[in-house]
Amino acid sequence: xxxxxxxxxxxxxxxxxxxxxxxxxxxxxxxxxxxxxxxxxxxxxxxxxxxxxxxxxxxxxxxxxxxxxxxxxxxxxxxxxxxxxxxxxxxxxxxxxxxxxxxxxxxxxxxxxxxxxxxxxxxxxxxxxxxxxxxxxxxxxxxxxxxxx
Length: 149
What we know:
Layout: E1 6-11, E2 15-21, H1 23-36, E3 49-55, E4 58-65, E5 68-76, E6 82-93, E7 96-106, E8 109-112, E9 115-118, E10 120-127, E11 130-138
Antiparallel strand pairs: 1-2, 3-4, 4-5, 5-6, 6-7, 7-10, 8-9, 10-11
């Protein structure tokens, strides 16, 4: 709210097990926003985001909001769909935040309401000690505002 992120973690939606806010959470939220644009493509046209070409199949997205800046790199397959997003993001471990490489890999693309989005993927922290596979996902349904159709 008001340009500030707030992370509240609850066990079974009831018991609070974590709560964090601050510039590190704000930066992480902007990185996540960039990564999640693949599921809502019009977000890539936001006035808060600028784009720069890195290579024929690589582009960097930069976002600035509320005095916080973040960026990430998208890697595209030959047909134009993003297959990988990599960014530096704050990771908290035992009360200390460090900047680490955070990666989202997108798998099979499927049309949902006529919009092609990744239907499978994985989120991974690429740590100095090795990869930490944080989350694997499968999108089974997606519903978009009528404006996109």
